Amino acid sequence: MALGFLTDRLDRADRSEAKEVEAPQAPLPRESLESLHLFGPRCTWLVAMLLVQSVSSLILDSFKGLMQRHMSLTFFLTMLVGLGGNAGGQSVVLTVRRLALGKPVQVKEQLHVGLLLVLVMAPLAFVRAYMQQTPLSESLTVGAAAAVITVCATIVGTALPKLLWFFNVDPAHGAVGVQVLMDIAGIAIVCGLGYLFLELPAKFAK
Amino acid sequence: MALGFLTDRLDRADRSEAKEVEAPQAPLPRESLESLHLFGPRCTWLVAMLLVQSVSSLILDSFKGLMQRHMSLTFFLTMLVGLGGNAGGQSVVLTVRRLALGKPVQVKEQLHVGLLLVLVMAPLAFVRAYMQQTPLSESLTVGAAAAVITVCATIVGTALPKLLWFFNVDPAHGAVGVQVLMDIAGIAIVCGLGYLFLELPAKFAK
């Protein structure tokens, strides 16, 4: 979350590296780019991120019934949302590095990696939930959510910086983007799968 | 979350900058440091982070009653936990930069900034929760949690890299540390304040 200051740092590192090749004796005037130590910019970032991330509360609110009936799902929300941010962040960094080196970036390739990661992460998330006396159906939902979140995160984490790069925007900004997107998408995926696996069968049974 | 790969990148950027001064014609053999594109290291990182972040589910599980009686608190968990990661991450980056430039880093100074940030973030979190038809007492808990989380995040985000630096460990690793710590601390703070504000008064009233 809020990797803006880090990506800014990366930008500058990248730019200073580029500068290095042209004229190593003349580094960028870095001090002029620094603003995080000022109260205004720092506070503005925090306010913006808080408001965007609060969208997650709207989604959860609209699935209030599901969450009340299956409390265990809420216990694993932070873990699952974190997984999306982590896996997506990894893909962004890999993509930014490959683009910087002029290497080709293929979403299909990262989708393949995402599917391989699912083979480890989904069973792990399921076992972790089941170990905590979580009912089988809810543990399976946690595992399935881990699978969908991992695949989505690797795709978004690759496609987003590639898209930014295509539109001449620094792909490093994808680091913030993927964290915010996967925070909200993660919540939506858990709620959606919860409805599909835990609520729908009960409705059909009636 | 999982900023390890980013801080690694920063480390290398820093090291290459240092190298620049000594011998600009001989950059570090960067390729040898790269491992994130390999399945093993990437998956190991994700597994480790998932297991650490799953501690949050144990805390929530032990406050199950509170969460069931005050569902609105769970809706704002992702937003509040995100705030801790964001504010803490900002402090880490500021501290790492100051240490790199040989400037003094004072936890007291960041505590002061944290208290100023609280003046904006706590009312904002309260209003955001209250706007969503959250009961007044729960909205106040969300606001109070935002306050405590913001102050904790700025302190931990400053003290952790300073501590790492003191023990000759790269302070940049504080970026991962603060995210994981504030994920878990954030959940604990919301649960603790929820118990204090929403459960204790009811017990005394009996």
Automatic annotation (TrEMBL), chains A, B:
Which domain of life does the protein's organism represent?
Eukaryota
**Could you tell me which residue ranges the SLC41A/MgtE integral membrane domain spans?**
78-192
The way it spans or sits in the membrane comes to:
Multi-pass membrane protein
Which Gene3D superfamilies does this chain map to?
SLC41 divalent cation transporters, integral membrane domain
| UniProt-listed InterPro entries | SLC41_membr_dom, SLC41_membr_dom_sf
SUPFAM superfamilies, per database record = MgtE membrane domain-like
Q: Where are the transmembrane segments?
A: 39-60, 72-93, 113-131, 140-160, 180-198
Q: What is its main location?
A: membrane
- Does Transmembrane count among this protein's keywords? yes
Q: Recorded GO terms, molecular function?
A: monoatomic cation transmembrane transporter activity
The protein's UniProt keywords, in alphabetical order, are:
Magnesium, Membrane, Transmembrane, Transmembrane helix, Transport
> What are the subcellular locations of this protein?
Membrane
**Gene Ontology annotations for the cellular component aspect, listed alphabetically:** membrane
Matching entries from PANTHER family are given as: MAGNESIUM TRANSPORTER MGTE, SLC41A_MGTE INTEGRAL MEMBRANE DOMAIN-CONTAINING PROTEIN
Q: Which family does it belong to?
A: Belongs to the SLC41A transporter family.
Q: What is this protein called?
A: SLC41A/MgtE integral membrane domain-containing protein
Q: Which organism is it from?
A: Symbiodinium pilosum
